[in-house]
Amino acid sequence: MAEKTKLLSSILGGEQVPPHLARSVIEERLRSAILDGRLAPGVALRQQELATLFGVSRMPVREALRQLEAQSLLEVVAHKGAVVAPLIGEDAVDTYALRVILETEALRQSVPLLTHDDIALARSYIAQLENETRHAEIGRLNRLFHMSLYAKATNRKLLRLIEIELNEEERFLRFHLSTMGLGKLTQDDHNALVDAASDKLLEQAVAVLERHLNNAKHTISNYLKQQSNA
């Protein structure tokens, strides 16, 4: 157990955190370590080990683990407790099919209301993505880019659902970049999407978004088929 705690300390940092910040700090450190691969799929995360590491009670640890489970970054396994989830789950294809439905609707609501500042913000995320190679940061910027184009959607619950799905995609992006041997994402679709949104070409923007998401869905589908045939 001491060896496991030492390993976690090297990954997450071992300094104690203020009690009022414990849940959010622990969640963010675990989330970052999962997204960038320092905590590999299948690694068990014990509440008491984490509580000891950060010098807190088990309550904020339990809350942090629940949040990460809700984001599909952790899953509860019998006799092991919370473990880091696989990079690609069996429902990944369904997730992308759902994203097509949710995000095209948000885009339809938002594009007519987007301002020059909204478009400039979206382009700024593309510029950052062009030069970013850290997987966790690519995922974060990608999420912010998409949400900047959906931000003016009038259905706020729709936006909350989309943000949940985009949080899941941050993990897929690391899988995608790793399996394809890529250091960063191509921004062709993102540029085309912003150009169409800027010109208020709604149907063109929706078509670009559908193609963008369906390409990712096909990548996952092909990977899962290869795994099942291996």
TrEMBL record:
The cross-references to InterPro entries, in alphabetical order and at most eight, read: GntR_C, TF_FadR/GntR_C, Tscrpt_reg_HTH_GntR, WH-like_DNA-bd_sf, WH_DNA-bd_sf
The superkingdom of the source organism is: Bacteria
Please name the PROSITE patterns in this protein's record: HTH_GNTR
- Give start and end of each HTH gntR-type domain: 20-87
Which UniProt keyword terms apply here?
A: DNA-binding, Transcription, Transcription regulation
Q: Which PANTHER family match?
A: TRANSCRIPTIONAL REGULATOR, GNTR FAMILY, TRANSCRIPTIONAL REGULATORY PROTEIN
Q: What is this protein called?
A: GntR family transcriptional regulator
Q: Which organism is it from?
A: Pseudomonas fontis
